[in-house]
Amino acid sequence: MTALAHGCLVRWANPEDAPLVAAIEQLCFPRPWSFDKVHKWLSTHSRWFIVVEVYGTIVGHACWSLMDSTYYLARIAVEPRVQGKGVGRSLLSSVKKHAMDTQCTSVDTLVSELDMDALMFFKACHFRATGLHRGLGQADEDMIEMRWKR
Ligand SMILES: CC(C)(COP(=O)(O)OP(=O)(O)OC[C@H]1O[C@@H](n2cnc3c(N)ncnc32)[C@H](O)[C@@H]1OP(=O)(O)O)[C@@H](O)C(=O)NCCC(=O)NCCS
């Protein structure tokens, strides 16, 4: 558990968090993960799923999988009302810290070439573009591989 400034706390998620995490998914993504998908991840990947609370309310989450010393970030989201206040950076800092604690050397994620907001966010958080996956997006758009290395 990591206490952050302004009543902000990052902690491991658990299956009871599924309704609030699924609600944030609905607010943040055009193709949100369903409650069932969130619940399944929380039940099977609880060591790879964190939430951030502000004064006791969940306002964001991040989850990843682990392969060959690399964290693959599957999801990161912050409730729209608290976006732009450093919460996403705090979540990502926790992901990086967990990666380093488990001897992982990098955190990778795929971002749609059309999602300038997400690309700018990852760039501001010291991720660099390391690859292009043509036509892999949900609308057949290219996906940009973004990587943070310690
Ligand atoms: C992307 C997301 C997680 C960012 O969370 P956030 O709390 O708004 O981000 P922060 O306030 O912590 O911003 C961290 C840095 O990124 C920068 N940043 C964030 N969004 C940005 C944007 N649209 N354009 C430019 N810079 C941006 C901030 O300026 C900040 O940099 P700074 O500290 O140097 O000023 C959030 O906007 C979100 O949930 N979006 C919808 C879901 C999504 O797109 N997830 C990513 C999927 S790939």
Question: How many β-strands, per DSSP?
Answer: 8
Radius of gyration: 15 Å
Amino- and carboxy-terminal Cα gap = 21 Å
Q: Can you tell me the CATH class of the domain at 2-105?
A: Alpha Beta
Strand order of the largest sheet: 1-2-3-4-5-6-8-7
Helicity range: 25-40%
The SS-based structural class is alpha+beta
* Overall pLDDT score: 93
Question: What would CATH call the homologous superfamily of the domain at 2-105?
Answer: Gcn5-related N-acetyltransferase (GNAT)
Helical run tally: 4
Strand content: 35-45%
Question: What letter string, H or E per element, gives the SSE order?
Answer: EEHHEEEHEHEE
Q: Which term fits the overall shape? A: globular
What's the CATH architecture of the domain at 2-105? Answer: 3-Layer(aba) Sandwich
In this entry the ligands are: coenzyme A
Question: Could you please describe the fold and organization of this structure?
Answer:
This protein has helices at residues 18-28, 35-44, 87-101, 116-124, and strands at residues 2-3, 8-12, 49-54, 57-67, 70-78, 106-112, 128-133, 143-149. It is of the alpha+beta class. It has an eight-stranded mixed beta sheet with strand order 1-2-3-4-5-6-8-7, with helices on both faces. It has a domain at 2-105: Aminopeptidase. It contains four helices and eight strands. Helix 1 (18-28) packs across helix 2 (35-44). The structure holds coenzyme A. Coenzyme A binds next to strand 5, helix 3 and helix 4.
